[in-house]
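#struct-pred
JK: can someone run the complex with alpha-D-ribofuranose? inputs below
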Amino acid sequence: MKSAVVVGSLNLDYSIALQRMPQPGETIAADSLTLNPGGKGANQAYALGRLGCQTAMIGAVGRDGAGDTLIRNLQSAGVDCSGVLRREEPTGQAFITVDKQGENSIIILHGANYTLTPADIEEKRALIEAADCLVMQLEVPMETVLAAAKLARAAGKTVVLDPAPAPGPLPEELLRLCDFIKPNETELSLLTGMPAGSREECEAAAKTLLQKGVGTVLVSLGAKGALAVTPHGSVLMPPPKVKAVDSTSAGDCFTAAFVSHWDGGLEPALRYANAAAAIAVSRRGAQASIPSAAEVEDFIQ
Ligand code: RIB
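RT: done, structure tokens with the ligand placed:
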């Protein structure tokens, strides 16, 4: 896809590296603390920009230094930030722990992200109308996500939703508007109330989303790769092998890379998205880990 607009969150990430996650009630020492530009929406926009897609971002940050940093970082990837609004609430924050295996857990403080309203989407509708594709996640209010999806669908745009953090079942009205939805296994299980441990279980759960009107379900399976489920069948794409250092933003990078490479062929887009996400997993940080188009091409070679 040549151009995209992202509606979603921007967070300053406080990322703590540690050997292992603490048990409840336990105190442990960390190896390091780093502050990185993050937020699922901003990560997607940054990745789209780095991967050569003309990209705009619609979101909200505070009138603070974190907001300045996040906007500057998106602009460094060529992202149009004219849709990023400044608010009195502080910029969103994420507190992330990453263990020795690269697994993470994340706690977010929504801050300004939750001030993004359907009226803001209306105000910035020209950015949606100018793009081929709308990309979203669920770190801004659901009513705002719905408003953006309706506007994009009415304008004939492709609608892509990364349903993270998954709140449980999604409004059927939203599912009907999604051309692509990209849950991981845990999110797929939360969205459908069905198990999603094996390929067969993922396919059965994904089919219930197809029945509700989703075009294609892309299930990211971490070290097992990605599974695409369509009304005509499914494709499992194994990932390249890399040493996992930090999985933060790998899902955001996967979604963006898939969109940037989507021209109707599932296998090439999945292969490209797997490669981009594998590079992201092998580096620390959220936007800091996201590769450029040249790096992905080299890696695939
Ligand atoms: O998907 C990773 C992102 O989730 C982090 O950058 C953090 O900000 C949270 O939004």
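RT: quick notes.
The radius of gyration is 18 Å.
The longest helix spans residues 266-281.
JK: thanks, will look after standup
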